[in-house]
Every structure is written in C-alpha cells, then in structure tokens.
Amino acid sequence: MMTLKKLLGGANPFLVGWIVLLLALIGAGIYGAYLLAVRQEAASVPWGLLVPSYVFFALAATGSSLVNSILTVFNVERFKPLIKRGIWLSLMLIIPAVIFIIIDLGRSYQFYNLYLFFHPSSRMAWMGILYIIFGLSLLLELIVVIREDRVPKWAPLLMGIVVLAATLTVHTNLGALFGAVTAKPLWSSHLLALQFIVSAVLVGAAFHILFISITYLFKTGSVPDELKKLFPRDYSPLIIGLIIINFILIAVKFIPGIFSPITSSYVKLLLAGPYSFLFWGLEIVVGGIIPLIILLHHKTRESTAWLLRASVLIVIGVYFSKYNLLIAGQSIGPMFTEGFIPYFPAGADILLLVGGIAVSLLFYTLGELLLPLEPEERPAWFVFMKRATPLKEGIT
Questions:
Q1: Alpha-carbon gap, residue 189 to 181, rounded angstroms
Q2: What's this model's pTM, rounded to 2 decimal places?
Q3: Which of these, 388, 371, 387, 376, lies nearest to 139 by C-alpha position?
C-alpha cells in the first residue's frame, strides 16, 4: 500500500495537511461571506461578531508593531531575534481585520468608493487610508530590516519611527471612532483609547510569544535559549504590568458606571446579567487572573509550555473584552427597544471569522517558507525573499 509520504512525493505530510486544512477553512469562510451577502433578515444588533473581531485583530496588529518598535526605535539588541517575525506577524494580523470590516460594511464590491469619495470628517474613511499607510510602512520596514546590509545604517531607525507613528495614528483613530459614539454610553469614555492601547500591547506581546515559540517548536523542536531567557525576563513583566493596569482601568470605568443612570444598565449586563459569564469567566479570570498567576510564579514563568498557555489565555481574554464591550454596548438602546436585546452570532459570521483567521495563518506559514526571517538569514533573490523551501524541509 502506498504510504502518505510516497503519495506526496516526499513532502512533509504535516505541513501539507496544515496547508490543506487552512485552504478548507478559507473555503468555509468564503461560503460564510456568501451567506452574509444573501442574508435577508437583519441582525439583532447592527455591529455583530465581525466588528469585535475586526477591533481585536486591528489591536493585535498595532500591539505587535508597538512591541517591534522596542528594537527598531530604541535599539534593544537582545530583541533582534524577534524583529523580522514580529514585523511579518503584524502584517498578517491586519489581514483578517481588513477582511472583516470590508465585508461587514456591506456591498464590499463598492469599497473603492471610500477612496473615490473621501470625506475628511469621517473617521471610518480615515481608517481606510491609515490601514494602507500602516500596511505599506510595515512592508517597507520588513524589506529594510531584511536588506540591512544593503541600506544606510540610519534606514532601520527611520522606518521604525515611521511605523511607530503610523501605528499610533491608526490606534488613536480606532479608539476615537468608538469613543466618540455618544449614543452608546458604554463606549463613550475618555478611557477607551487608553484601554485600547493597553489591550493592544498586551495581546501583541502574547502573540509574539505564541507565534514565535510555536514556529521554532515545529521547525527545530525547541525554542532557542536566548528566547527562553528573553520571554520570562522582558515579556513577562510587561504582560504582568499591563494586566494590572487593565484591571485598574476596568474598575475606574465600571465602579462609577454602575451608579450612573446613563451607564448602569449596560454595566449590569456585564457584572450580573446575560454577559456576566463572558465578562467574569473569560475576560477577567481566563484572560487576566490565571495568566497573572502563571507569570508571577517563578517555575511556570520560566517554562515555555506554561508561557504558551498564558499567552493563549490572554488572547482569549482580550478578544472577549472587545466582544463584551461592543456587543453589550448595543444590547440596550432607544434605537431598537428599551429592554435587553439578545444576540448570538449567526453561523455565517462564525464561518467568516474562521476563514479570516485561516487566511492570516496561511500567509504566516508561506512567509516562513519564502522569507528569510531568521536573525542572520539573508535573501537569495527578489529584494527580500529566499528561495522557496521545499515542503519536505518546511517542518522537521
């Protein structure tokens, strides 16, 4: 009987299976987008699952970029092994964010009108411009970092500053977009932009640990020693501080909010209402308290396996923090009804979410195969690409 390895011509079965799985999930996402396009009934809330997902991935991309800036702008030498993958990861995380927001806006085929009929007073219009600037600046930064031997010594610093400025601008515009919606009391807060920054760096650092560690585990079977020291020494204190700051911001917002006649009904939805499990269980305990315990304990903080667990939990917690904020913020309002508006994501939304994530993972995988992302690796052809790694060598 012909073995799988012979059938695939010597290619790595795990890598081939991984790519086939991602392509299948992308197909499911395309089907979900089709179902959304032909859906007749309106959702119970106008901004459903795709909007929190868009916000989450936008924050993850900008947060990863802010962490990257520690090396490119502040020139911290020990972060050098992370920089190329960190930039590539930021680019890959912005892809699902753009997919979700374009499709959720409706009439995606007319998205070009955002640029043809640009309105300077529209924060949404500026978002479309700023994401292009952000993505192009990341791409140029990646080329400069990879071709560091061929560019002036000041070029990486200059691109780092440009990317940092673009990141902060995108991030500020995103926070202002929701914070300026006075019709939604749970969103309208001067603390929202700060909460978004804290969440962005928190999830960006968690994604760095998660993606870079798993990449090395699959390629070489172990995380390099310098990263085993770097993550507990530099990333863990950063994450611990951000979790504590996030808890303080939640308390500062919710304690006065529960006594305010304007926001109390929304806050009660999260503290003791239909969204209390998502808030206390997933956002606070899973995304905050458990990772905090893991990172504060010496033995678990030094363990790659426990760091990965903590990173996964942080990603889950940050995602549901945005879900809770945006969905609960629409669950009561005079625009629809004075009572509670229940919401559960439709199957099409879930399929599209899975498909968008699969697109990001597929491009990240292709980047590992095609780009020289190792610290001292140099490109073999076409500006910044290496010769394609055969599938049989992609993952050992």
A1: 9
A2: 0.87
A3: 371
